[in-house]
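Researcher: Quick one. two chains, 542 residues in total.
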Amino acid sequence: MELIKLLGVLIVIVGFALKLDSILIIFLALITTGIVGGLGVGGLLETIGVNFVANRSMAIFIMILLITGVLERNGLREAATDLIKKVKGATAGKVVSAYAIMRGIFGAFNVGFGGVAGFIRPVVLPMAEAAVKNQGHEAKEEHVEDIKGMASAMENVTWFFWQVLFVGGSGGILVQGTLASLGYEVELIELAAAEIPVAIFALIVGCAVTLVTDKRLTKKYYGDK
Amino acid sequence: MANLKFIQINEALGANLLNMVWVIIGLIAIYAGIKNLLDDENPSRYGTALFWCSFGVVCAFGTWLPAKLSGVLVIIMCLPPIFKKVKVGRVDTPSKEHTILQYKKVGMKIFFPAVCVGIFSLVFAFFSNLSSMVAVTLGVIVAMIILMVYNPSENKPAVFLKESERFLSIMGPLCMLPQLLGCLGGVFTAAGVGDVVASIVEKIVPKGNVNVGIIIFAIGMALFTMIMGNAFAAITVITVGIGGPFVLAYGADPVIIGMLALTCGYCGTLCTPMAANFNIVPVAILNMKDRWGVIKKQVPVAIIMLVFQISYMIIFK
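Model:
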């Protein structure tokens, strides 16, 4: 009965799908795998200890937190607001795209501006709505709903695909560790370099989809040529 | 690339520097634990302190502790969050007026310390044999010095420590998720889970065709991430079960295949309400009517990105 070894995997899949507490899921999967994998109590504790210590690189974000809050206190968000205000001839699509470009490039340096709650809601949305007004339209509710969706979508797309360029980010470290357990030794900088074409393509596709969609919606809602 | 690395540090010194990094991080976590232990505004002082302190001890001293003892500490660390006993204490969030005032003082040059860490990790990765963790730490130290020079009255040394505690507490125990998942992946491997997954997939998928393997690996990552809502949870299982035996075993480049598998997983993240943080929470924050409003805008991008990445992996494998 080799299949019983998969019980831990099953717990992870079902547990996350049922939205149980994430740490509880991992805890149960650890214990279960230790039992069905025949590691024994001592063996399981030792394996957990060795692997947790080996994965300490994931905690490097705590070092970076030393400056994250202080940067915020010193006006990083205000500086970012001024930076994106420099977009000329703004439409809602252009404002969102400009934010996406800034978000992506700074994401590669592991610098964020507060995400949806901290930046999109207080800065990007008011700017996008103002841009719609500047084009001579009264922003329609449906259009604003679309803009909200597009802005959140670009927030995610650019962060996901650009943050992997940061050498020392948790994604690359996890891949490095997983490959090492299979016997492949790779360097973090090689992993980041492999993602460069993906990141650039993602930004182009994301901005193109945003601009085209916004143009289509503007036509649909306000009848612009 | 190796010939570019003119900054060479001997192994013993490199290892010592790395250990210093873990000790500093561990001490920050222990500080967070003690701060919350003494914080009478925290509704769960002991649970919160136990969580951060046990993590801090494993992190700081894991190099020297016996592995079994580290294992026990990890188990202890997991208990307070499972029983919902890790809480946030007093939080001192800077006011909008305050940050605007500081911005008037510091201005656009705030971007220099902001990108400092990224630049350091990049430069050291190219020109030295130093660990990225040490490079990141040096970047943080330089950024701290720059911030102190910019604004000495505001950025006193203690502020950095207090602010890191504030952010740790906001993030809460879930920030340990990646490290715990990495640990789980290691336990899976030790128990032979990967071999079992591989033997099952083998019955469905013809072994020996790398391109078919790549397509299944990439789509498998996206689908599993959609089900689990977390690409980090998916990648350890799928890489060991599918990526290893069906793609890498045939000599495909582990750098490209291993890394892109993660971003293929991210395509799944873009399409699933399971990734609530990214796809559902924004709907609430922005008062949107359509619960799927964010996901709908992401699906076209995700599909294009998945196709692009599969082609990239097949061409450059």
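Chain B touches chain A through 144 residues (CB under 8 Å).
Researcher: Thanks, that's what I needed.
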